[in-house]
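Recap from last week: sequence in, structure out.
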Amino acid sequence: MIRRRDLLLALLAKAPELRLPGSILVHEHILVDFIGADAIHPGRYDPDEVFQVARPKLEELRAYGCRRLLECTPQYIGRDPRLLARLSQIVGIEIWTNTGIYGAAKHRYVPAWARQADAEDLARRWIREVRDGVDGVRPRFIKTGVSGAPLDELDRKLIRAAALLSRETGLTIASHTDGGGPAAAEQLEIVSALGVKPEKFVWVHAQNEKDHTWHQRLARAGAWVEFDGIREKTLEWHLVCVQTMAKTGLLHRVLVSQDAGWYHVGEPGGGAFRGYTYIYTHFLPRLQRGWARTLLVDNPRAAFGN
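Predicted structure tokens:
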């Protein structure tokens, strides 16, 4: 019987253009737990089961040339650096974890203590995570999020804290942004006012904003515009977003990813775990020559570092 891995290698041998050595996926997930900050606790899932579910998906991804995956699950939604380190060692892909707190989803994942702390206190906690590590793993970027525009005071505090952390450590802020262009612009204003360069801010889920002028405005201001969630039903729209940015000379400010994976804690077997290869098999072949390397190699390195 021909194994799935052998079939994959045969496919790649016939279509080497699908491989992109050194490529980086900037927004993916392995594990998520949406029970909420007040109810989440250790022991809600079996790490060995998650490992067995995620491993073959990551091995499949590695065959396409991926060298790094940024795992964007924040604290209080299932962040598990120890699991990520174990998968990284076995699979041979760098898997980066994050620090910060996620304020989107109407603050469901903001714990009570964080609501009471000020921005400086939050930043100090996260700086310690960066310096000391979390379960022996150093966070390599900041993940936060806001619930909409105009930002409420809790969202503004989380963004101020992320900016203070970025200013101290040099880490890049990736912010899940509900509220489209206006919310992205307001965040960038806060970040810039605290002395953080615009290129340290990533507007996550920019594809949800249908007005391309907002994408261009934030990119021209120096921020990164991230079109993630690439999948079959969104493929054409994502291509339009990227093509529009390229036509206006702004491809160098664009990031793309899939927001895939997702072992869902609480669902039998983790539910439907979406693999990571669609971007290689369906999205990259539709791009003009040279764009794939810009979007999946050069831009991620410029945005998040080496």
